[in-house]
Design a protein that fits this description.
By secondary structure, this protein is of the alpha+beta class. Helix content is 32%, strand content 20%. It has 3 helices and 3 strands, in the order βααββα.
Length: 74
């Protein structure tokens, strides 16, 4: 597992060519503004993996009604 770098927005702007080369080599960079993370520069393979994984949040809930009126019997 590689270590993720953190760069301020201005520093990232000035070092963009180097950060792009690092991304090509598999290195991720978190870009911050006033110390707060706002963006990530990641290798394209990592982005594809993140896009393929679907969120489970739309499935969140109690599950009430999935097993009928008396779930103890089901």
């Amino acid at each position: 597992m590689s270590i993720v770098r953190r760069k301020g927005a201005e520093e990232a702007r000035n070092q963009l060519p180097e950060l792009l080369e690092a991304a090509e080599k598999g290195q991720s960079t978190i870009i911050t503004r006033h110390g707060r993370p706002v963006a990530a520069l990641v290798p394209i393979e990592a982005l594809g993996a993140a896009v393929r994984q679907q969120s489970l949040l739309p499935l969140a809930g109690t599950g009430r009604g999935l097993w009928g009126k008396d779930s103890g019997r089901t």
